[in-house]
Protein 1
Amino acid sequence: MPIQITPDLQENIKNFEELFSDCEDIKKRRIKVGKNLKSECYIVYIEVTVSSVDWKDSAIGKFLGTLRTLPETQLADYVRENVADVSDANPFETLEDAAQGMLTGDALFFLDGYNRALKIPDKGYPGRGVYEAESEKVIRGSNEGFSESIKLNTALIRKRLRSPHVKVKETFVGRRTNTNVDLVYIKDLIHPEILKKIEERLNEFEIDGALDSGIIEQLTEKRKFSPFPQFQTTQRPDRAAMAILEGRIVLLSDNSPVALILPTTYNSFIQTSDDYYSRWEIASFTRTLRYVASFLAMVFPGLYLAMTNFHTQLLPTDLLLSLAASRQGVPFPAMVEILIMEIAFELLREAGVRLPGANGNTIGIVGGLIIGQAAVDANIVSPIVVIVVALTALCSFAVPNEEFATAFRILKFVFIFLCGLLGFFGFLVGLLAVLIHLSHLESFGIPYLTPFVGADLSGYQDERDTFLRLPLDFLKKRPVYTRQGARTRLKFNRENEKNQEGK
Amino acid sequence: MTDEMFADNLKISLRQIRRLFVLDIFGMSSLLLPGIFSAMTGADGLFCLLIGMAGGIVLLWLVAANMKYMEDDYYGYMKDTAGQIVSDVFMVFYFLYFVTLSGYALYELTTLTLGWLLPEGSFDGIAVLLIFLAVYACLRGIEGRARVYEIIFWFLGVPLILMLVLAIPDVNSSYWTPIVASQGEQLFRGSTSVMIFLLPFNALLFLRPFCTKPEKLAVCGQQALLVVTALNVVIYLILLGVFGQNSMGVLKRPVLTLMGMVNLPGGFFTRQDVLMTAVWFFALFALLNTGIFQGTLVLRELCHETKKNFSLYVVAALAFFMGKGLFEHRFLGEIYDIYQNCIALPGMYLILLALLLFYQIRTGRKAGKGATMNVEE
């Protein structure tokens, strides 16, 4: 049963201090107000969230200053009538709501004779500012990255999409963490049913704590056993803004610098922001490269095994002899050799990620150069296997999204076993299984392989932005994520069109 | 959100159906027909392909004519037109056809694997793996299956066309003669063989509830038929021109042998046959999948199954045993040949003709009754 805030300040203080007993980080101050300082108010906040002790320059300080100029009898009326001056939310009626308001990082204000509590924003929780995104690096385009503050992140999106049609729907996840989750979208572009479906999925579970968007992602994913992520992640506000312009919905979670974009497809994981900032030839070339890389990151070691162990007739004799010569003295079968190197490489990668910056680079050098060379010299692995593993790693690094690349890294081991045991037949079986799986996969109603499949849903327009990114003039329509009737994103006015025809 | 937005809307597009049928028909026909023609008709195989195509067009016309009167699904139409018992008999006929088709596709796919990809493998191991894959593909309905073939279509088509183009310089046009040298019976047998390979088009009848534009299904089938025939004609002419009739007769899978012989200019790979086997692997798998999916669909209707996948497992098991039987007992292959020629082929045409006839009689009677009642009134 929620505890109502009453006009009796002492009772409110007693209830509040009971609720927050043994919480030394919460500062509770009783302050005299009114012309004759005969009335009392009670201000509570989390220690670091309010900027200065005397509050002279802060909103709270100015507010208190005003209250000290008014007669005691007029204080409650004044506060009631001027709530909007200091508070960004409606006054709280219950103690639980007020406590929740304070835990978002603001100060709470109780006044004797006033049966509400005000939430007064100040500095808020400490957090990083806007830093460069550590993943999804681009050659051209903004370097701003999301931070841990959800308010900052929504502002970074707003900065790019200055339209009243951009909506931010707020919800809370986590029984104990009460994590703020925002859904950002353009109202007239999205399919309302997708938004409804996302909200339904968010309400499908009750968890005690959602400390990162990753937890929300996992709990709302439909196919839990698929290695492929069904939500796209980004740390770049421009990528998120671009997705919103495509009629997709961005989910921001407080305390997480990673935004979730949904729905998503295989194609969208391969795209990067600068695909659209660079000329179409460069964008098409690099994108095709990324497609090939995503495929090779999964199958390259397996194909090497299939060709060298089962189908040697495919390779030219000279190459075959050189491969055989390089393997001389290696005591392990080729499959074991590949597995040793791949596991060693994954260990190096993991160690490199966990160690602090400079040490992480050292691990790369020690692992890549010294251990690799020593393993070859000691005849534990052949030089060609080192090349195969290194190329595979390069391919996985070329995939722009980490979670998506991880799917290929995991499947790579499946292909190593399949091809090592069954040769090219194993490769075909594995490929077919992955294709069947991907073709069943969907993200909020959109087939994962769109627009390679189901391109008719968008009148085959989306095919212009796949392996090749056609010139922007050709990409006049938004992708399939956008609702029918709102798909035009580029229009030339008549004069421009005439000029183009003239050229 | 409109229905077509959803991935699990149980509807597939015409492009998906077209590609699915091209792969279904192309795989088996391009693999086996050249061998059959070389043994029977030589260069006249070309005429067999064209006559066979004409037969296919007739079949598709019958399909289209029946579909015109279909209000919902094929089984419902059969029941309305010919009654419960006759329609059940027809459904059993279709069930047998699709199960044996999947068994034969499994047999061909496994022997292809054993011959070209994994000679030291075991039939049972390979067949079980393939059946598992096919069941996995069928479990999620038709869309997933259709999407697989939609996406791989050009990945298979482009290398195939490239290889065929590269094989053209090796063609000796004198091998294309003599023409019109075969006897009528040989031409007839060759043509019926082609028509047998076109029988999977009957699956179109069952696709009406799954298609976004059911009224265009038959046209879609005709387009697929034209593509497959064109491909088969080109492949046959190239094979005949490269090997000649006699050499081709002794080759097991001439088209795969050809793929092994083509030299890529400045090529890294010395032989491409293993890589190109992927084309037929995927195409035969498509046919295996079609057989199992359609067989399951028919069995489900017959058993009134609603939710469980019992029918799918039964059909998959039957396909496995049929494939294994064909692999281990040669005579079963001969029986299957007789079944295809004497029962499946004429049966498919006759069922469609009979349904049309029944429909005309039924509507005629209704019209007659209506007229009588009007007069009485």
Protein 2
Amino acid sequence: MKKEAFIERVLLFLALSSISTLLLITVFIFLEGLPLMAHVGLKKFLLSSHWAPTKGHFGILAMIISSILVTLGAMVLGVPLGLACAIVLAEFSPEKVKTLLKPTLELLAGIPSVVYGFLGVVWLVPLIRNHLGGPGLSLLAGAIILGIMILPTIISISIDALSAVPDLYRDGSIALGATEWQTVRRVVLPAARSGIITAIILGMGRAVGETMAVIMVAGNALKIPHSILDPVRTLTSNIALELAYASGRHREALFATGIVLFVIIVILNLTATFITRRR
Amino acid sequence: MRLDPRIFQVFVKAGLWLLTGFTLLILVFIIVTISIKGLPQVTPSFLLQEPHDMGRTGGIFSTIVATAYITLLAILLASPLGVGSAIYLTEYTREGWITRIIRFGAECLAGVPSIILGLFGFVLFVMKLGFGWSILSGGLSLAIMLLPIIIRTSEEAIKAVPPEYRLVCFSLGLSKWQTITRIVLPCALPGITTGIMLSVGRSLGETAVLLFTAGAALRTPVSLFDSGRTMAVHFYILAREGISMPNAYGTAAILMISILLINVVAYSLMQRLMKRYT
Amino acid sequence: MFVLGCGRSPKKALVICVAGSTSVQPYAEKLAEEYMRRHKEVRIDIQGGGSSAGVYAAKQGAADLGASSRELVETERDLLEIPIAYDGIAIIVNWRNPLENLSLPQIRLIYQGKITDWAELGLPPHPIHLITREEGSGTRNAFEELVMGKEAEITAAALVQDSNGAVREIVANDPYALGYISMGLVEPRVRAVAVDGVLPTRENVKNRNYKLVRRFLLVARELKPGPCQDFVNFILSPQGQGLLEAEGLVGVVD
């Protein structure tokens, strides 16, 4: 009996350690970042586009807009392609193709983001520069690379969601005279809705948080973009470019940027939980 | 004039197949490019030599060692902590609002952009605690990043074990811990292992955290306090600065092979464990 | 058993940590390789991060030596400052760009964003793709001091890259790009333009004809006797300086 109590204590200790580690980070980020938000004023921090930290200007609007646009662009590319792929692979293709493709997708999901970024610099950026204009390092390049990066995530989770729909539903629909596509559109997709939305939100989270690939292809200029061919700097890129030498208020500003990112992720997760709960 | 659904379906399917083909083309293109340009570089001397001249010549031995070192440290720290926490959360507590909050917290932290962990690790481990750019700083930061993933996957694996198993154990007079070690954990082992393998895979690709905590030293790290660059960081630097394209591709190819190997090992391990315990 | 790294422990200090300027980094690596060849028990780790990062790391003690390619500012003056070389900042364009010369005022106007098209410089019309370094870069700070002056600011529309090598890669691949890098990193794919008629060569840096010259510094909180001191002495010795001069820099010890 004593051994049981001891083991329970040990496990409790491990659990508490985990929780406190996770809490530590959150608290650390907020403790470091909030003073700056208070000092500058939340409105000015979020709504001013003047970022010149060495001179005391801490407005991250340009970067917020860039992050949003790049993520949106990635979703515009990634979601339709990803869903189409998932539907075809889950519903319209033979088992053999599925077993071949699932590991390929996992392999692609594991490829480091810097490799995607590099291939983007070598192949995509010159394409944009020569055929569309601008320096090539641009919002468009960032969105495309991110879109490609989140494809494996969206595809595999969507395939799982679609496969989880019982064949009973499909058989019933076909028995009623519907075509395969009608079945997919009106029966399977709605049934898999929460899983697919989770896939999309996870993809979105990944896009928002990506740093290295974006630094390589997006150009990192500090202006609010006027066209998709303009270079942009996202919130994450900004942190990466400046964290090594930032001190004092500047560093607090980077943590404050971290708070903003953290809040965005929490909102995304809450949305995902809410949607899956409603099912 | 309504279109016959069967004809409409042909168009839709064609469109979807086209999109799928396009997507797969892009994804396959990535693998093929890395393979064609990188595999020729992967020779035993490439793997066993140290990099010279900023990485322009020589091999990537030091980066392989650094990657192994940091990943091992991170997994050694995060696994016991993560699996232990998962066991406690599922077996020793009742499902309530506390556990839900903890789970939500773990989900959020799993989604936090890695650069923020890099910032955190840099400020805390490298600067404040004085570890400097080191395997220790990198391993600790990476462990924090992997912890939520391991907790989540272990929890799911443990929860998937049917409650009947536990009831049978109790009715036979086994204690809680005996139940866990003899029945629950073995059943959950495939899932837990997958989670750990997933984490290893993520560690291999992680750059943002390690560049700022483990640094970018070119030489083979020996002690915990030595700095070292992982393969992903090495690739990033080589590629960005145009130091050596062939070496960059070679590093990428090795990364890709490593991930493939890990996936294969994880899969076969999972198969074997499932056969043994279920 | 564990050797405490980066010389923070007073007991064993066989590891020297140098961090900072990406301009200094390749030269520091060369010097380190040579030094470690002669002293097999010492290990020198070189980190990048930019001049400000290096100075900051030296100040905090995370690095034994900070490498900077700009002068120290007021708040950093309490650090020990060791000049090791002179280097020029080269203004580079793609090898296909026929531009050969720019005046200092022209460079300033370009970087302010007031000259935006190659047509204004006598070339076929096309927007200039302007590249600068991140704010913590020593090269950027030196460039701002030497070219922009106190009033003019680099335009926010310029592309930002975080190392000399990255700037060079972009200029090497984009026919319409313009950037600035350390003189020693110029290679055939990019052309260094003459500034006010003077090309950035070793000679022109040495005799100060080329105007965009800055010092490479090593900074430290203190230089206790030991491997760090030895390494610095090596860098300042004829062998060390000779190595730097062979790589294209101008030594400080004449």
Protein 3
Amino acid sequence: MIKSWRNYEALHQEVASSLLQASESTSTTLPLTDELATWLAQLSLLYGVPVEYMVADARLLPTESMRFFYVDRNWTNRLIDGAISVGVLSSMEKVFNEAFFERIYAQVNEKQVQLRAILRSTNNGGQVVDGTLTGLLFRSQVVSGWPGLEVNASAKGTALDLLRMDRLSDNTLLCLFNGIPDTVDFIEPGEGLHFGINREADADTFNIYLRGLGFPKDGAYPAGEQIKDPDIPGGYLQASSSLRGGTEKGVVAITDLVSSLESKFPSGALENGTLTPGGFAVQMVQGAGFQQYVFGENYPICEAE
Amino acid sequence: MSEVTKMPVWPGPCVLVPMTTDILLIGQPDFNSQTTWSGTKNNYYNLWMQQLPDSPQAFNQTKCPPVGAHVMWTLPYTLRKGSQQASQQDNAEVDFPFIPNRWLITRFQYGQPGVAPTVVARILQSDLLFDLGNNPNAYNQYPYPSDTAYPVRGIGQNINLDGWAGVAGPSGYFLQAAGPGDLAWSVGYDNIKNVLSLHDDLSADAAVYTYSIIGWYADPANDLLYSIPTENNDDWQQSLSSTYGWTLGDGQDEVTQAVDTWLAWQRDHGLQGPWDPAGINLPPQAKAAIVAWYNWQQQYGVNTQEAALPRQTICHSMVATVNWQGNQTAYGTGVPGGGLKYPKISLGNNSIESISTYMAHMVAENKGITDKTIINSIERVLEAFQKDLIFDLDKDPVKVEMLLHNSRFESEYSGQEWMVVRPENSVQEPTETAGQQSIPLNQEETDALTALNTLQDQLNDNLAQVQSLRSELFMLSIKSSYMGRKTPSAIVTAVNQSINEIKSQLSDRLQQYQELSQAVESQSAALQTLIGSTYLVKAVDRLPYSVPRDPVIMVAGVEQDSKLLEPSAAQENGELFVRITGQTVSGINVSYTLDGVSITETIGAAELLAAVNFPVWNAIPKEVMDIWVETLILDTGNATLIALLYFNKRGVSYTPADLSTLAHQIQIQQSAIWNPAEKIGVPTQTLGEVAGFNGLIPAAVGVSFRKGQPWTPIYMDWQVSWFPTSSDETKQLTDWKLGDIDYAWQGTAIPAPPNKLIFQGRAILNARVAKNIQGKFASFESDPNYAFLPQYMQQSLALVASRIGELDVLTQAMSGFTRQLTTQLMAMNRYPDDPEITALLTDTSVNYRPVTGSDSQPDPLPFFPIRSGHFQVIDLWVVDSFGQVLRGKDPQLGPESPIPTIYWSESIDTHSPEYSGKDASKYGQLPPRLAQAAQANINFLQRDNDNIPTNSSDLTNPICGWVMANHLDNSLMVFDENGENLGSVMKVQREVTDFSNALTQQYTIRWEAVPGSNTALGAPPELPNSHLQQFILGLLQTGLTQDADAYSDLLSAIDATLWHMSNFNNQNGNMALLLGRPLAVIRAEVALTVAGTPLYNQSWVSTGAYYNRDGTYDPVDPPYMGALFNVRVGDSFFDGNGVLGYFQDDIYHTFYAVYGNRGQTYAAAGMPAKAGGNRNTLSVLASAADAPGFKTDYVQADHVIALPANGAHAKLTLLVDPSGTVPLIPGSLPSSTLALPNGPVTRALNNIKTTFRAGPLLLDPRKIKMPTPAQVQGNWGWCARKDVTGWNPEVAIAPYSPVATLQDNAVKLIEGWITLSGPTTNSN
């Protein structure tokens, strides 16, 4: 006796068609668990990808070099394919992957932009913009010398989400952006006080702009503000000085510098006409370093996928 | 005469066991009416004379019993219960206890209210045998083999008590509940007249009667309780409960109380200390009786000093309010509905099926369902529920169906096999607890175990042969006794020659049996010595033989009677309440208010015995007077007398109204105690105390107040018309096809045989199954798990549960039907006279009567050793113990027309895709079955030696090797039995020169030896196992002619099956998860065998036809043994299935894909693992109406293995997922499964090392590093060619570090093989 308790003959067909239907439905149910999507998102942000696969030869990224790049979605999708193909025991899993791959990619993409926020335990994840990911590889002493280096990318004035920023080694930095930036700013770490001078390379002389110290009391030269040059419209007063000679290079001649500074201050701007050590420190404060890269208009913009 | 002829009486206490009595009243009008009566009498005289009828035939009609009261009692269950001797064999004798052979029947006749009843008493000498004289048919008979001249006697005698001499005997005690050749002997009225029943020819005048029945053993030594331990209360009580199923009550110290009561009784009756009748303070009649009793005991009785714990039994019963209205009254019938209604009937292959079918229709009617498929599914739910499979029904319906199918067979012992197991207290963890143990024996031990099993096989076969030969010899001896002067000489010669041959064969076999048994014993002992104490050598039962069950008929609305059931089936605690001497009811407290004064008086023995005269007695149990007094006190018909005695005792005058009021009040007291204790929540004894009774109230079964005619259905007579699939015994499988689990009929019409084939039989009804079902449903709603069942299941079950209390059904198999198809009749038989034959037959109980036909008939009788076809139920009778008949069919329908309305269970319902006959509902359908015990077996064989079946030694394991489909490489990796990688079959692109070819033809397959081996490129594989080698060579061969299509077919076949296997546990670590499932290549064989010799047609002309060669025993198989049955190995729809397919009979160019696999996923299997762009393929897969099938002949679907039942083996090389089992689905026999031996599987899986091609990869050639899965801690290696012929040594793959080294020595593009071995994981 044949008992058709289930239509077994058509079981494969039923599974396939129900997967197909589910994949085409407008249901908001996500195909992957959150954990899995997060893992795949990390993978698509190249976590765990050997550096050799990105820079096949060290000569492609010599020291003190920076390479901007697009992330090829084809490439990362194949990476996801590879990862989810590991569990394929039979064509049933293949059918699942085939039916749901677009939704899987979409879910992973969504996760990509939230990943950094998740890893940093902040709430403000970004949004998928146009799906184009870009990035840069930066191999330089700067990476090791300025551990807190900040990288900000923006397009047409709008900041782009930073999806990943990782040191791949002491001197190699990888950044991935959500979108195509037209400007990328590198900023020295903003925290703390910097003292120093600016000079041309190999020059023995330098200039320092003068800052007010809150004297005279009428507020003519507020503390910390640069003092305008009454003679040059839009200009500021500055004092020149030089480095010390001798075998030790790059040492500031402090006494000369103090004298030069004192001489340049307008009258009344110094307490008792003398530059105190505190006043000297104010003169020597340096703002954070800032380097901007702007893509030229003729820079070739690639279309991803 | 001397003392030995006098019956001794028992001085110690007795257990008083209540039993049920029925009384059938027959008046002259009843006698004259046309009511149908059926006889229940065994005619042992006819049996001896070889005349018919010798046993009560089905549908026999007899005369109504004579006018008067027919008193028949039912022995307590314990006395009717047989126990089988402990034996290896299923057909061992069943022993029954002796039953009481002296019965005292006392009749109390009531006349005017208040007048003391007249008491008469009769004694039955139940086992008195008397000469039948010239009129044997006038009496109920009993065989008496010691008189060879006239070996039949009449049995049972009744005489007045006062005329009875207290005779003892007989010396050879024989009386049991089961009569000779008849288990239902003690409940068939016609057999037990004056044995366990009495015809009381009442006077013509009306009167109300009460009967008391008291039974005991004439010889105390034969008493059921005689050997109960009496050393202490606990042992006695324990034995009473466990051995006899009796209890003295639920209290803590009921035994102590009972003993105290007995000692007090003994003292009161002067039986303690020196005998001093003057000191006995009892009512005169009681005193006279005990004095008379004492005197008898002194003269004839047992004079031993008995313990205070009883070891004797007294059965007792009373029936009151027997309202005899004279002999000219019609008392009617006890048949339900007055015999004018017909019961509902359903049929199934077993009791549960037939009852479930009935209940499914009940549910359907209730819900207005008419769709047959829904009714069938409800039936299935109910069946699964009763078999405790309800939770599997939704998850694994195939398993449920297999088990339900298996329950349509009975099992028969098939012998043993030997295993070596770890002892239970072993410190080593056993790899498996039962079945195919896996033990690492060495070669010598393995050889010894194999030899032992070979010997045991011979012994098993010998045992089966002995049984067949005995059966044949028995039938031959009956044939021989049938022969007369007119028997043709050819037949005489054939019978005599056959007898001599079988005798000689049997004698040889029995001799051989002894030798084999001894050899097995000594060899098993030797093996145990050889392996020492680490392991145990153990014999376990083999898979049993199976015999198809006869269809089971269920009749509903038969008003079943529970008195024949064991107490546990009727009441919850399962034990029958009994009392001991002295505990009987001795008085009733009566209160009445007269003139405003209420006074309570106890009316007991003193008052009653002053009023009622009892016969004088001495040679009967001392307890009789107590039971008589109890009868008077409990009898509602005696209430007026009790009331009268009250007023007399109180010494007041009263009006008739007072008398009537008080009598009514006493009747209420008497009735109150019979309220069912479990319903009102008050124990019976408490009720008794409240109602004012002194003493313990007997169990309700022992006291009845007659309300109408009795009805105790015991027999079912069935008659069917058989429509065999073919009249040719070899063509019974025509039009049948092996379906999912069982054979399915494909016929277009039900073929009618040339002559009508009518079979009939009488079977004993069974109320127990229905009771068990009721019990099971009672607990249904209390189990919270049922809430998880699908809604329709819950609803069906709940509805049945709510109505189960009303279920009034009895079931019975059409016992002997299948036997009748093979010219054998289940009947009482005369045992052969020839001492040589009886010595050879010993106590075998497989005794069927040959159906020979006439000796002048030239052609054999129709013979259906393969039961296959259709049947109609022509008639049905339910016969009660008095012979009353409930008809199953309106007689006006005519004798040959089938019963019109029958509920057929799904398994027996007639249907075929080709048949739409409107009469289908009148036919039951029986798929092909061998009518004799048979077996479908699948056995594993040692991988390299087909002559050694796999046993518990790992050295005999059946694993030829392993293959694994590598999805990453599109290759089939091949491993040896230990998991060593041997290479792989790869699909490769062939050099294309002709671009006009289709794309697929651009591929081929080639053998790729394992990376690192020194095999020359392109060399064929050289695999260590020949089956594995043949398999791979056969596969590679297809590459020459069929490109890669055959290979793709094979992978597709594997793939489609794996869809079902996704729910298996991890095979081993995460190997399967990473790469695929290793599949074992297994060697096995299947065979269909019958137990012993084939069945032979018992017609005269066929005698010895298949073994007698003119006096020489030369057996050949009858032609039907060549009929081919289909069996299936593997079923992809069964959850536990591990089979993916197989090669048969060493033919390796055709792979048979497992059942259910038709290449459904061919399209999907061809898809690359990467996603994208295959949506069309997906749509094709999802919408394909039919499976596209396989492209080549290499893989074939829907294969079944055709096997004759003669034991011919089909050798198989199977592909098996080791986490599943190998199911065998024979259809005509039960399904079974076989699991791979654990040890070799685990070893290989731990050892398995996979390789897959990788590249080109950017790697540092000096140190191979790559990311490996974090959760899998396997050994990853890298294997690469050095040049065209040489290999670099394999190196371990270092875990990748995510640090960007960006060294100047650049990575290179490298190709090679990644290897993975021993993957394990700490967490899943």
